[in-house]
Design goal:
There is one protein chain. The protein has a single domain, classed as Rossmann fold (3-Layer(aba) Sandwich). Helices cover about 45% and strands about 10% of the residues. A three-stranded parallel sheet has the order 1-2-3, sandwiched between helices. The protein starts with a helix and ends in a 20-residue tail after the last helix.
């Protein structure tokens, strides 16, 4: 069985900045080797990649489903959060959020000292 660590290692070792996408979107069922995931995700990010991921099994029912499907023990939610934060992976909680973040990754980075502001519709009570 190929794990997310194997996929990240392959992408890291064969990354070609001239030809490969810098946007990596992942759906992770289980994490077998957190140190390896951290190493290769961090390496890809240093090479200019942006990574977002969904970790299946965050809820109790999702955890049961993931463990019954893969036979692996699902990682605790707080451990996954800490690992993603340390690696620089943007954590998403739905497929819709993952695709939205992927679209945002395609936008150019904002430069300068000012923050962007997004107009919000007025709330009527």
């Amino acid at each position: 069985q190929i794990g997310v660590e194997d996929v990240l290692q392959y992408m890291d070792e064969h990354f070609n900045p001239e030809a490969d996408s810098r946007i990596k979107l992942l759906y992770i069922e289980s994490i077998g080797d957190p140190d390896r995931l951290l190493f290769h995700a961090s390496s890809l990010i240093k090479k200019g990649c942006k990574i977002a991921a969904i970790k299946a099994g965050s809820s109790e029912s999702g955890s049961r489903a993931a463990s019954s499907h893969t036979g692996a023990i699902a990682s605790s939610d707080s451990a996954v959060e800490a690992l993603f934060r340390k690696a620089g992976i943007v954590r998403c909680y739905s497929r819709e959020e993952l695709t939205t973040v992927g679209c945002i990754f395609t936008l150019p980075e904002l430069k300068g000292k000012t923050s962007p502001s997004l107009p919000m519709p007025a709330v009527r009570e």
